[in-house]
Amino acid sequence: MSELELAAVEWIRVVGVAIDVFGVLIIVLGIGWAAGLYLGQRSGGEKLGTFKIRIGRALLLGLEVLVAADIVKTIALEATFMSLAVLAGLVLIRTFLSWTLVLEIEGRWPWQAHAVVVGRALGAPVAKHGPDGTAEAARRDALSARDDERSKVTT
Question: What is the residue range of 136's domain?
Answer without folding.
Answer: 113-155
